[in-house]
Specification:
Blueprint lengths: L1 E4 L2 E4 L10 H5 L2 E9 L2 E2 L2 H15 L6 H14 L5 E8 L15 E8 L6 E11 L14 H12 L4 E6 L4 E4 L3 E6 L2 E4 L10 H9 L7 E3 L12 E6 L3 E9 L5 E3 L5 H16 L4
Parallel strand pairs: 7-8, 7-14, 11-12
Antiparallel strand pairs: 1-2, 1-6, 3-4, 3-5, 5-6, 8-9, 10-11, 10-13, 13-14, 14-15
């Protein structure tokens, strides 16, 4: 595997990150995951804009966007990939232990691996933990993923493949690595930015695509108690695209079957595939 670190293409066996890098020591960093279709990183401009937003939220400096795009294309080409999962990461760089950056220079690296499609449906578990919608990092895509790792393990222990978080107000927020849409009275609803969720690129594209296939889609709070009555739910993310939820598992391990894939998820999934076929940087 060939990776890119701070301007160099390297065999992964020769790649090195300092044990004092702030990404490793204190989780100080941001990242983006992109799908590569036909050898091209999809929706690059949107992903870079979100990377820049996350970096600004942490006060991190990013490499020049053209340099990062060159790195992304170079890594894909060097590994001979046409359908891949690409990750761009920027950390606070090497510095003394502790929370202060003290003039550390950011580290940037790009990795790409072959992509394996997600299944069309998935089982989701509700977790006992919450997202803090008023956190300093709410809505930022940081590399501090310990809460997601723990929640996903919790879900897997219950026979699920993804986990749902509420926020501190008791409303639906997001899953560990995806956004959530629920269908209520024929309308596709996803939590708003104020809920504390990360605003996924796929989520945004689906909101734009919905009117074209006759689906009303909007951002609104969804109280967690209402999940007991929804008939259809789906996840959206770069790697899942549109993935229908076949079962919702509560904290007592009781599973409730959902319509999967339901008509709205099916329609939006096709609209997304059509978009990818005609435009790789929408």
């Amino acid at each position: 595997m060939i990776v890119w670190i701070d301007g160099e293409l390297l065999d992964i066996r020769d790649a090195r990150i300092s044990p004092l890098d702030r990404g490793l020591v204190v989780g100080d960093g941001v990242f983006e995951t992109l799908r590569v279709y036909r050898g091209v990183p999809f929706a690059w401009r949107r992903h870079f804009a979100r990377l820049a937003h996350s970096a600004a939220g942490l006060g991190l400096a990013l490499p020049d966007p053209e340099r990062l795009r060159f790195a992304a294309d170079a890594v894909v080409a060097a590994n001979g990939l046409t359908d891949a999962r690409l990750r761009v990461t920027v950390t606070g760089g090497e510095g003394p232990p502790g929370s202060s950056r003290a003039g550390a220079v950011p580290t940037a690296f790009v990795v790409a691996v072959a992509f394996h499609p997600a299944s069309p449906t998935t089982r989701v578990a509700m977790t006992p933990w919450t997202r803090n919608e008023r956190s300093a990092v709410a809505g930022l895509k940081t590399i501090s993923y310990a809460a997601n790792v723990r929640a996903l393990a919790y879900a897997e222990e219950r026979g699920a493949e993804e986990a749902l978080f509420a926020n501190t107000a008791g409303n639906l927020c997001e899953a560990t690595g995806s956004n959530v849409f629920v269908i209520r009275d024929g309308v596709a609803i996803t939590p708003p930015p104020a809920a504390g969720c990360l605003l996924g690129v796929t989520r945004g594209l689906l909101l734009e695509l919905a009117p074209g296939c006759g689906v009303e889609a909007l951002e609104a709070d969804v109280p967690m108690g209402e999940l007991a009555s929804v008939s259809e739910m789906f996840l959206s993310s770069t790697t899942r695209e549109v993935q229908a939820v076949s079962a919702l598992i509560d904290e007592q391990r009781d599973a409730r079957a959902l319509d999967a894939p339901g008509p709205i998820a099916t329609c939006l999934a096709q609209a997304f595939r059509d978009l990818v076929a005609r435009d790789l940087d929408p």
